[in-house]
Amino acid sequence: MLDGKKVRLRAYHKEDLETVVTLINDPDVKKLLTPGIPFPYTLEDENKWYESISGNSTGLYNFAIETLEDSVYLGGCGINSIDWKNSVAVIGIFIGRKDYWGKGFGTDAMEVLIDFIFDQMNIRKIRLNVFEFNVRAYKSYLKCGFKVEGTLKAEIFRDGRYYDEYIMGLFRDDR
Where does this protein have coiled-coil stretches (predicted)? Predict the structure, then answer.
């Protein structure tokens, strides 16, 4: 377990899966996560994902995010891919409980994940993508030190219009 100021990153438990499916299928949450057409995520899908993350033979890590104060499951974060040759990790995060949005829980979780990647995995660069309309996440990533490295213009179609997708990066030396 990895503790921050507000959150703890821990391994996923089987008991988390139903909550994950409920949170991830909320339309407000779903539109922030996937570039494709939002489609319901099933418990079967989540079980398959859960089975695929057991054991860390791939070097990828997925963490459940819970509050330090009362262990409320908030969402998840982790490393989606690693380029070991070039020492670059691609990450993602979601906070599914809307009543916790805008209160620093996601930023704290991101800072804990960043520390883990740089200090325990010896990675030199972390990369992520964020949609233009996800302003809360964008501001959080800037607080954590990420910088925009590129913009995919009009990349994401949501709610009747096209939005940009930002590619952001953070180097260990820039912390």
Answer: none
